[in-house]
Amino acid sequence: MSAEVQCPAGCGPMKYKTNRNKKIRVFDPLGYAMIFAGIPFIAAPDNLPFDFLTSNLIVNMGIGIGLLVLGAQRTALVTTDLRCNTCKGLILESKSIDQRLKGDLLGLSENKAEYIRTALSSSKEESRYACPDCGEKMRRIVVPYEDGSHRPNALVPDIVEDIQNLSTVSRTVEIDGCEGCDMLWFEKAKRERMLSKDSTIIPKT
Ligand SMILES: [Zn+2]
Ligand SMILES: [Zn+2]
What we know:
Layout: E1 15-25, H1 29-43, H2 57-75, E2 76-83, E3 90-92, H3 94-100, H4 112-122, E4 126-130, E5 137-147, H5 158-165, E6 169-178, E7 183-186, H6 189-196, E8 200-201
Antiparallel strand pairs: 1-2, 2-3, 3-7, 4-5, 5-6, 5-8, 6-7
This protein binds zinc ion (2 copies).
């Protein structure tokens, strides 16, 4: 995409925003080294294997926690999206679509990115927005999803699960996107958050 992307809603240029996904770890040697270095400070602040540091327990704990937090920050997956500060719209580009809209590890639900791309390529509904990259009209799709924060535990008996199922929230979210540019446009950034949450799944059909 070009350096400056215009908001499809006509508000003007959009801004890149960097996000750290605290749950997904990437390979960052220094980050992991910091995490491991922090462990002895917390596990045994009064009995460190080296003596050049203070023997103050609180200071040692502080150093340990600091190392863990900084290490965790470094190893967290960084994704970027484009935001419009005027209308609160959000654009996901190709790489971010893959990173943010994965399927779950157990394969119980659709890969969200794959589902959305397939739906986009077969959608006949024209969006009212034009793609900011190629200028063509985008396509609009409706994506069903379940907010799995209340999802039943796989280990509980069926009868309990039936009751719990009632609280599983099924919803749909409307997305516009350009298949050619592999780009998604969310009129409200909130919708993207709902869909990219770890607990959200797209039910298999
Ligand atoms: Zn806007
Ligand atoms: Zn396009």
